[in-house]
User: Fold this.
Amino acid sequence: MTDSKQVIPLESNPSIFTDLSHKLGLSPILQFHDVYSLTDPELLSFLPQPIFGIILLFPLTPNYEAYRKEKDAEAESYETMKNRDVYWFKQTIGNGCGLYALLHLLANISPDLILSHSKINDLATKIQGRNLSVEEMSLIVEDLEKSIKLDDEFGSKGQTEAPSPGDAVDLHFISFIKGKDNHLYELDGRRKGPIDLGEVSDSGKESIINEQKLTDKIQFYIDNADEKNKHNFALMALGPTLD
Assistant:
């Protein structure tokens, strides 16, 4: 499936992702926070707990693209969403990875943290318990993007000048969240399906920020970046508001 539309890529900015999340129906008791370290106890102590999900922005280097293609060639075909432990959406909107990363979190957190009569609640109603194909799920997300007017409302926000919708962007958003089976999942719309990173340990059951599997996978991406891109990474965490 080819990209059906191009949008302005979102900036890695907690305020933008929080505003978009609330527009989609996330409870106002949650917001996004910058994460400056996954290993420094002092920096981690500033994050409110629990952390329900993580969004990573990382560079699309030749090393990564080779790794992605190799792993996807080994992966099983992902056909439908029925009876899945985690919801995953194939990215069909060019430069829309920020929206997909956000939807991967909002569609998989507890329904208690989503407002009723919201766009995310409507999305959940459309997909829960149904034998939808990957293509059908993609069309639902494309309709959602049209309804929120991503470019007009969020594409030009931020502290840096926004590129045009058709510009090639070498940075990419993905998400990490716990599934219904208590496994940690890496969710990336450019991959072949959700990536099961294994069962969450006792230390990560309440807050995935403490999960070693999360730290190891993000460190893997950092270690495999070339020198030019060693610092082109950003992390945001979804957790309680600070107000």
Remarks:
- The chain has a mean pLDDT of 89.
- The two ends are 43 Å apart (CA to CA).
- The chain has eight helices and eight strands.
- The chain has one domain: 14-240.
